[in-house]
Amino acid sequence: MQPAQNTGLKLATDEGGTADKLLSSVCDLMIEKESVDVSLAEIAARAGVNSALVKYHFGNKEGLYFALLARIAAAEMGSLDGLLDMPVSASAKMRLHISGIMKTYYRFPFMNALFHYLRNSGTTDQHPVSDLFVNPLVAFYRKLLAQGVASGEFRDVDPLHFYAFVFGATANLFSGRPILMLVADVGPVTKEECREYARLVEAGVFGVLGRKPD
Amino acid sequence: MQPAQNTGLKLATDEGGTADKLLSSVCDLMIEKESVDVSLAEIAARAGVNSALVKYHFGNKEGLYFALLARIAAAEMGSLDGLLDMPVSASAKMRLHISGIMKTYYRFPFMNALFHYLRNSGTTDQHPVSDLFVNPLVAFYRKLLAQGVASGEFRDVDPLHFYAFVFGATANLFSGRPILMLVADVGPVTKEECREYARLVEAGVFGVLGRKPD
Predict the structure, then answer these.
(1) Whole-angstrom distance, CA of residue B29 vs CA of residue B36
(2) Range A70-94 burial, b when 16+ CB lie within 10 A, else e
(3) How far is CA A91 from CA A133, A188, A210, in A?
(4) Candidates A131, A173, A207; nearest CB to B208
C-alpha cells in the first residue's frame, strides 16, 4: 500500500497500488492548488504513472474524482453509527460531530467544490453524490435529534432544516473562503481558526436546540 | 416603467423600458425554471424584444445577469445603513436582518446560483460580484456586532466568522434544496417554511452571540 503523500488520507490497497497512488495524488494536488481544477496529466505525473491508468482504474477523471469523494465519505459517514451508539449524552455526541465535520473540512478543504463539480459534471446518474453525504447525514440527524428530544436535552427541530443549517454553516468557512480572501485581509483557514469556528458553530447549534453547551 | 411580471422586483426606468423588461424577464424565468440556465432567446421572447437589445443594453448575457444581481444587491444592501441607525437594540436589528435575508432569498431563490455563475463566468474582473454582497455585509456585521458588544448584548465574535456562519446557514436552505429534493420528500421552499427557518437561524445566531432571543 502506498501511503498518502501529505494528507493522511486512509487508502485501501489495490493491485500494485496504482489506484491508491492516483487517489492520493489528486487529493494532494487539490489541496496544493486550492482548486478541483486539476488535469489528468498533472495527476498522472504526480503519481508517477501513465495517465492511461486513470481510464483503466476509474473510467475517466470524473470516476477518479468520485472515487476520492466516496473514500472520504466512507471514512467520515462510517463513523456516524458508532457515534449514535456511544454511551454519552446526545449533546456530547453533537459536539463530537460538529468538531468532526470541521476537522474533515480542514483535511479536505476541496470537499464541497468536488461535490459540486461532480453534481454539475453531467455524470450524476452514474455517480449519485448525494448518496455519499446527504442521505447518511440526514438519517444521522433524524436519530440524534430524536435521542436528544427523548432525553430532554433538545427541543424538537425539523431534521431537514437542522441539516441545512449545520451543513451550510460548517461548509461555508471553506467554500466561502476564496471570496473572503479577495475582500478581507485573511489567508487560507488555519487549524486554530478551524477549531475556533467549530466552537462558534457549536454555540449556534445549541442555540437552535434550545440549550447551551455544558 | 414596466412592472415586474411576478417577482415584485423594483425596477428603475430606462429609455423605453426595454432594459427593465429584460431584467424582470430573466428574473421571472430563473424563478420558474429553478435555474440560472436561461438562454438569451428565452429572455428576449419573454420580454417581447429582439435579443440584440441585450447586447445594446448589457453587452452580453453576463452583463444582464450582473445587472440583475446588482439591482437586487442595491435594494437589499442599501437598507443596511438605515438598519444600523434605527433606535432599537442591536438584538432587534439582528433579528430584522436575519428575517430580511430570508425574505430576500425567498423572493430571489436563484441568488446564490447567480452569484456563483458570475464568479465562474470568467468575467469577474469586470464584474466584481463580491463587492455587491460580501463587502457590504462584512462591513455591516463589523458595526452591528460592535454595537451589541458595546451595549452588553453580544459577546465578542470575529466578524468574518460571523459572516461565514450567517451566510452559510441562510443561503443553504435554498442552495442546498435541489439535492434535498432528490433524497427527501420535500418540494421547493414555502413561505411558511422560510419564516420557520429564519426563526431557527435566529436562535442559532443568538446562541453564537451568547444570548437567547427575547
Answers:
(1) 8
(2) bbbbeebbeebeebeeeeeebbebb
(3) 22, 30, 11
(4) A207
Low-confidence ranges of chain A (pLDDT < 70): 1-16, 122-127, 211-214
Tell me what pLDDT residue B124 has.
52
Q: Is A40 on the interface with B (CB under 8 A)?
A: no
| CB contact at 8 A, B178 and B34 | yes
Task: Please tell me the distance from the alpha carbon of residue A179 to that of residue A15, in angstroms, as a whole number.
Answer: 42
Position B87: which residue type?
A: P
Provide, as residue numbers in chain A, all residues whose Cβ is less than 8 Å from the Cβ of B158.
196, 200
**Interface touch B204/A205, C-beta < 8 Å:** yes
CA diameter of chain A: 58
CA dist B94 and B81 (Å) reads: 13
pLDDT number for residue B3: 35
Mean pLDDT for B107-125 is 80
Q: What is the pLDDT of residue B205?
A: 98
Predicted confidence (pLDDT) per residue in A68-92, tens digit? 999 999 888 888 989 999 999 999 9
Residue with cell 429534493: B181
Rg of chain A over Cα atoms, rounded to whole angstroms, equals 19
Q: How far apart are CA A173 and CA B125, in angstroms?
A: 24
Query: Is the Cβ–Cβ distance between B74 and B42 less than 8 Å?
Result: no
Closest CB to A204 among B180, B196, B207: B207
Please check whether residue B139 touches A, CB under 8 A. Answer: no
Phi, psi angle pair for B195, to nearest 5°: -65, -45
The pTM assigned to this predicted structure is 0.87
B70: part of which helix (H) or strand (E)? helix B61-85
- Would you say A133 and A140 are in contact if contact means Cβ atoms under 8 Å apart? no
Q: How far is residue A19's CA from residue A47's CA, in Å, rounded to a whole number?
A: 9
Owner of C-alpha cell 422560510: B194
Q: Which residues contact B195 (CB under 8 A, 6 or more apart)?
A: B99, B102
Query: Grid coordinates representing A52?
Result: 492511461
Q: What is the mean pLDDT of chain B?
A: 87
CB B43 within 8 A of CB B25: yes
Give the integer Cα–Cα distance in Å for A16 and A13. 8
Q: Give this complex's ipTM.
A: 0.86
State the DSSP H helix or E strand holding residue B49, giving kind and residue range, or none if neither. Answer: none
